[in-house]
Amino acid sequence: MSSLNFYQHVHGLFNALLAPLYAGSVVEFMPKFSVRGIWQRWRESYPRKETKVDDAITVFTGVPTMYTRLIQGYEAMDPELQAISALAAGQLRLMMCGSSALPLPIMQQWEAITGHRLLERYGMTEFVMAISNPLRGVRKGGTVGKPLPGVQVKILAEDGSDDDKSGVGELCVKSPSLFKGYWKLPTVTEESFIDGGFFKTGDAVRVDEDGYYIILGRTNADIMKAGGYKLSALEIEAVLLEHPVISECCILGLPDRDYGEAVCAIVVPDAEVKRKMEEELKPALSLEELSTWAKEKLAPYKLPTRLLLWESLPRNAMGKVNKKDLQRKLAADVQ
């Protein structure tokens, strides 16, 4: 087995490097993330149907942004190259996704192209992996699966009480791999645990009817309060990504005098649509157009009331948008 690896944090170190090495596989590093290079490596691994070379890549793991870029690269290919590339990618044994929530439209697009339903799971540096969709069994899109064997979880309600498993609250984890504490930070360590030795993850979750956990986002960045309603930015983002004009998007709560927070959508339009609309001296998307389209898919209080069109979203090395920094900068501009 050979796997591709690009990044070094808990996802990269444990899932993409140490676990494969422990299993006796070969891990192949690339100098940097390259859409063209990855598709080419897969095509080289599987030159024909049901045929693979000796050093073929069999497992791939990446963050959601990587899959978004790979989809964009696939869409830019000519039909013949698309067919060859999709056939090659479909012959890998396993593809996984982690580090941040995978938008359902991206999962669905990837499955339509490659036939792979990405295996999504949930972990943190403090305890490595805790929740996962199954290797064999039903992988539910929009969820991170169920707790792994030996892992205990609780959902902490906003008032600090243990909520029932059908509720919404902060995910708390206790597992054999849970860390002891933060180095030389006893106060932070104490504040990070609740009774029973459960670690507060800082992620808001809910559980669906089948017991699969759904990540709603970071409690300090992805959960907004608008007009008395508690909203998940990730839920709104997943819906907006279905819009044909939207290539990428980010939802933030910005200060609002009347509602506490206003739902602000930062959108990166599809490059081809943007080019055509610029020729007509029109924006790629207006707030009115977005609201009209989204009102059939979102409750009225979840609809964005502000829209920003950007060339790209600022992302860190793991492909994540630092929403807290972005929120502070935009909030200062609003005031």
TrEMBL record:
Source taxon at top rank: Eukaryota
A Pfam family: AMP-binding_C
MF (Gene Ontology): medium-chain fatty acid-CoA ligase activity
Residues covered by the AMP-dependent synthetase/ligase domain: 8-183
Domain AMP-binding enzyme C-terminal: 235-320
InterPro entries: AMP-bd_C, AMP-bd_C_sf, AMP-dep_synth/lig_dom, ANL_N_sf
GO biological process: fatty acid metabolic process
Family designation: Belongs to the ATP-dependent AMP-binding enzyme family.
Protein name: 4-coumarate--CoA ligase
Natural source organism: Coffea canephora (Robusta coffee)
